[in-house]
Specification:
By secondary structure, this protein is an alpha+beta fold. It has seven helices and 15 strands. It folds into two domains: about 70 residues, RNA-binding S4 domain (Structural Genomics Hypothetical 15.5 Kd Protein In mrcA-pckA Intergenic Region, Chain A, Roll), CATH 3.10.290.10; about 230 residues, Pseudouridine synthase (2-Layer Sandwich), CATH 3.30.2350.10. The chain is globular.
Length: about 325
């Protein structure tokens, strides 16, 4: 077997077989290959996976396949460019990532809006790549969950494979768990008068759209969100949100379904209001992951971690008159 830290790319003319090391366990295949194949364009990495030239244990897998202990990854012969470590990443962005909590197993950061959690098509890299490049180059680090690119706030990462498996299990059971809760804040268009409103409406991905979009549908997956309006703001409302299930775009779709779309939401929001918000510099959906409460996978201690409201929230909340 070849030590992946000693190669730039597979040896010319023949495939290379790599055995997955401990720090790569649970890592996505595409991210693993991007670390191994420095200098190879992301588009080419996705192509060789899609074409079946990359094999895991002799079989075809998808880019989001999670590597397991002792997996054997076959990589075809590839001509690599000059190796310039992390040349595609804008490493200055790592200074924008604030650490909210860290111990030997868990890292929680305050994700800035406008930075994806991981690289992908058209993206040089995201939070995970930036952190690996600058702070955790020689240690295990994986995302425990995801936030949309334009969503800010608490993002959990795991520093050990065992912790990652435990966090994933907690996330799957969050609706009935007394030890895992996520609280968000949003600013919605309109003055929401209700005290507390629960939306229990199944959602699913819409078919036939080129962009990822979710709709409320009886045939969708169960989704439950609890909204508590906190403060009315001259045509807008600051709302606290308890996310009881974790579906794609759940908060944004449920808020829009009851007539209060998230402010500046380009996918599910109000077009004319979004245009007005853009004129004062607010160009991303005002959705913030404010607080996470979880039982520590190792110690059992209940952690409560909070991220302060970002500047664009404060900007709109301080606006004295309608736009």
């Amino acid at each position: 077997m070849v030590n992946p830290d000693e190669i730039i790319g597979p040896q010319a003319g023949r495939p290379t077989l790599l055995e997955v090391d401990e720090r790569s366990v649970t890592r996505r295949l595409d991210n693993y290959l991007r670390r191994i194949l420095k200098g190879v364009p992301k588009s080419h990495i996705y192509r060789i996976i899609r074409d079946g030239q990359v094999r895991v244990n002799g079989g075809r897998v998808k880019p989001d396949y999670r590597l397991r202990p002792d997996d054997k990854v076959r990589i075809p012969p590839i001509r690599t460019a000059n190796r310039e470590s992390d040349a595609e990443l804008d490493l200055s962005k790592v200074e924008m990532i604030q650490t909210l909590y860290e111990d030997q197993s868990i890292l929680v950061v305050n994700k800035p809006p406008g930075i994806a959690v991981h690289g992908g098509t058209g993206l040089a890299g995201g939070i995970i790549e930036l952190l690996r490049a600058k702070r955790y180059a020689d240690s295990f680090l994986e995302l425990a969950h995801r936030l949309d690119k334009d969503t800010s706030g608490c993002l959990i990462l795991s520093k050990t494979p065992d912790c990652l498996r435990s966090l994933h299990a907690s996330l799957r059971r969050q609706e009935e768990s007394a030890y895992f809760h996520k609280t968000y804040h949003i600013i919605v268009v309109g003055e929401w008068q209700a005290d507390v409103q629960e939306v229990n409406a199944p959602i699913k991905k819409a078919r036939g759209n080129l962009v990822s979009r979710v709709i409320v549908s009886p045939s969708g997956s169960p989704a439950r969100t609890i909204f508590q309006p906190l403060r009315r703001l001259n045509g807008f409302t600051l709302v606290e949100v308890k996310l009881m299930t974790g579906r794609m775009h759940q908060i944004r779709v449920h808020a829009a379904s009851v007539g209060f779309p998230v402010a500046a939401d380009r996918k599910y929001g109000n077009v004319s209001t979004n245009q007005q918000l853009a004129r004062i510099g607010i160009k991303r959906q005002l959705l913030h992951a404010t607080k996470i409460e979880l039982q520590h996978p190792d110690t059992g201690v209940l952690l409560k971690i909070e991220a302060p409201l970002p500047d664009d929230f404060e900007q709109l909340m301080s606006t004295r008159s309608n736009l």
